Amino acid sequence: MSSPEGTRAAPATPGTGVPPQGTAGTPARRLLGVPRQRHRTRTATAGATARAAAPGTLAFVESPVQLLNVLEWAHAALPEADAAEADAPDGAAPDGGGPDRAATEVTIVVLSPHDPMTRGQLRRMAELARDEGHTVRWEEARGGPTAPLRTIGGLTPLLRRARRIVIGDPFSRYVQLLLALTGAPDLVVVDDGTATMEFISQLARGERLVRWHRSGGGRGARDLVFAPFSATARRRLTPPPEGGRRTVGVFSSMPVEAPPGVHLARNDFAWTRARFGPPRVMGGADIVGTSLVETGVVDADRYLAAVGTLARTHGASRYFAHRRESTEKLHRLAAATGLEIVRPDLPLELIARRGPVGRLIVSFPSTVVHTLPLALAGTEVRVAVCDIDPEWLTANASPRAQGFLDGVTGTARDVQRLPFGQRMAAG
């Protein structure tokens, strides 16, 4: 049986995918089964390449979900530019071109990670971004000891000229360093999943930016060396006093309330719903995997037992693996539960919207319990969430872990809470 929704190969051989070269003007290769966007696609020309040298908007992403949310932001925030381009003759700049057009150009910089699954999904998302008319610049930002210096050196001119910076991960040291090099008057943070909830909380309290799953309060040598850049980035992300020339915005589907001075725009996945689906809905259930074991939060044996219980209870046949789940764990899970392991080649919001998909999607506390109901609005698909029992947590889990995970579940809208979640023991 073919698998349009992702890679169904054995977990031991996850898809890798060679990244594109990332030069402005590289022709986009269309994805099979994905409709072409009717208005924003344009032929790369010397003029487009020249404009990309001084983009109005410069976006930095390190994960497929971040890139997806940059596309959602552009769809929601730049409708006037979209309409102007649609009305212009082929090859002509719309009325009011020049500086105004430059202000709406989006150059997406992919700071490529090492993980092969993440790289593969980023490659596919980059193709979609190019199909939307955006410029994608692929940076091997972690490709050896000199890579950071090369990357930062090459990006510095763009950082100094950009009028707007869009970032997907305010906790990233790489992004924090780049923020310290820009004086752009407009900063926008797009969703990096549930981490956005923690970012907003820490920003409102004036705390230093620390990922929720990091345990311990100590600061290592690298933290101390990087502290000045982190502090600068935090100041840039803090809204200025009223009347200040700089603006800070958040584009999010998470249930967050913006601190005073931060402009909050809601992400309802309008671009995803316009480009994909509606999906073909099948019977049974699909289970969504999580990397809580890999991050040291949840015990592996407890997790595998919980997945098995969910599969038996809801008649699930497929398990959509998180891109960071280890091959060893997925082999164990397949052997113990009989579930078909699917390695998605795109973010799950797009996979589910494209289909086929089960009538019920079961997840542990994660971003998708907030995003899937939005992406699947108007379909028959229901989303359910299984809580994390405190007994599943490892001894090394952060003291904040249980509260954070409970908050992710408790604030989710339009999802079913599984009543037996807290009682699913490892036996």
Question: Could you name the key traits of this structure?
Answer:
427 residues; alpha/beta; Rossmann fold; 2 domains; seven-stranded parallel sheet; six-stranded parallel sheet; 13 strands; 15% strand; globular; disordered N terminus
Q: Topology of this protein?
A:
Blueprint: H1 46-52, E1 57-61, H2 64-77, H3 79-87, H4 99-104, E2 106-111, H5 116-131, E3 135-139, H6 147-161, E4 164-167, H7 173-179, E5 186-190, H8 195-205, H9 221-237, E6 247-252, E7 262-266, H10 270-275, E8 281-288, H11 300-314, E9 316-320, H12 327-337, E10 340-342, H13 348-354, E11 357-363, H14 368-375, E12 382-385, H15 401-410, E13 416-417
Parallel strand pairs: 1-2, 1-4, 2-3, 4-5, 5-6, 6-7, 8-9, 8-11, 9-10, 11-12, 12-13
Helix pairs in contact: 2-5, 7-9, 11-12, 13-14
Walk me through the structure.
The chain is of the alpha/beta class and 427 residues long. It folds into two domains: 46-272, no CATH class; 276-423, Rossmann fold (3-Layer(aba) Sandwich). The chain has 15 helices and 13 strands. Strands 3-2-1-4-5-6-7 form a seven-stranded parallel sheet, sandwiched between helices. The chain is globular. The two termini are 34 Å apart. The model is unreliable at 1-5, 8-33, 38-53, 81-86 and 91-103 (pLDDT under 50).
Short description:
With 427 residues, this protein is α/β, with parallel strands linked by helices. It contains 15 helices and 13 strands.
Give the tally of β-strands. Answer: 13
Helix content: 25-40%
In one word, what is the shape? globular
Q: How much strand?
A: 15-25%
* Computed Rg: 21 Å
Kindly give the count of domains. Answer: 2
Q: Unreliable segments (pLDDT under 50, ≥5 consecutive)?
A: 1-5, 8-33, 38-53, 81-86, 91-103
* Main beta sheet strand tally, sense and closure: 7 strands, parallel
Strand order of the largest sheet: 3-2-1-4-5-6-7
Number of helices: 15
What is the rounded distance between the termini? 34 Å
Question: Kindly state the mean pLDDT as a whole number?
Answer: 80
Q: What structural class results from the helix and strand content?
A: alpha/beta
Q: How do the helices and strands follow one another from N- to C-terminus?
A: HEHHHEHEHEHEHHEEHEHEHEHEHEHE
Work out the oligomeric state of the chains in this entry. Answer: single chain
